[in-house]
Amino acid sequence: MATLADVARRAGVSPATASRIINGSPKPVTEGLRERVLAAVEELQYVPNAHAQLLARSHRSAVGVIVHDVSDPYFAEITKGLQRVATENGRLVIICNSYRDPDKELEYVELLRAHQVAAIILAGSGYHDESYTTTLDNKLRVYEATGGRVAVIGRHQHAGDAVVPANTTGGHLAATELYELGHTRIGVIAGPAHLTTTTDRLAGIQQAAAEHGHTIAPTHITYADFDPPSGATATARLLEAHPDITAIAALNDSMAVGALRHLRQAGRTAPGDISLIGFDDMPVAQDVTPTLTTVRLPLADMGARAMTLALRPPDDTATPQIEEAGATLVRRESTAPPRR
């Protein structure tokens, strides 16, 4: 097992300097020294003394949260829960918008580590990118080795505390609702293909299709960007290619709102001409006309639970804790049986 002296020797610094960097001392050091020591920690798989970790955490009051975009209603709801628990615990929350740029997320991890935050919470979807996920996992492990805590929301490669939304179950609920209403010609507006959230929700859709003796062909799935404009564009593509579709499953509510906009502009109605179901149950789902049938995830609660995990006492963090956030169907006005 590597020792502090081994790390110092590998980095070419004194044990005292290595200790200050590893344990998050506020005493300034050059970024070059910090990077060398943390690289040595990673290479040698060095695990610091638990007592030193506790001391390192004691002066850290901020928690870093990396989201795709806090103005997105999905992340706005999650952030409400995060901030509520942080405030209750006297913590400052630093919000970092990555805009689904993996390189920016990696930069934020480094920046938050340099600011010696007490914890980092990843609140966005994981990526289907092995190089990125491996690099991210390594950076987070180095950060944890220096006394930091990590919690994630969603399916990520990093092994640690996590709140995992029931995306596959939710996709299954959405498709099952449409099939049981009598729809068989269904189109899907999915999110970005490189996100694990999209993959998981699509998997649930396909499971329900198979259970009802159907399959949703790739030609009936169009990918968008989890926002209203791309949802409208995707709806136009689907209906142009498959005018006989009687139902659309949009894999988030923002895209469903865009779908409603396109249907209105095209002179078509929901659910009269096309049934439409969303996902997440964002506040906007009750404000549109017709109100949106959707799959509810407890977004604010997911944020609260992730912050609670991130702020667990050091003696309570030996075993990673995985919590599932369940999905439920919410029936409103945008779905009905197909016209005969």
Automatic annotation (TrEMBL):
Keyword line: DNA-binding, Transcription, Transcription regulation
Transmembrane regions listed in the UniProt entry: none
A Gene Ontology molecular function term of the record: DNA binding
Pfam name, any one: Peripla_BP_3
Domain of life of the organism encoding this protein: Bacteria
Secretion signal, residue range per the UniProt entry: none
Ranges for domain HTH lacI-type: 2-57
Keyword Membrane (UniProt): no
Metal-binding among keywords: no
UniProt region (Disordered), positions on chain: 313-340
PANTHER family associated with the record: LACI-RELATED TRANSCRIPTIONAL REPRESSOR, LACTOSE OPERON REPRESSOR
UniProt-recorded name of the protein: LacI family DNA-binding transcriptional regulator
Taxonomic lineage of the native organism: Bacteria, Bacillati, Actinomycetota, Actinomycetes, Micromonosporales
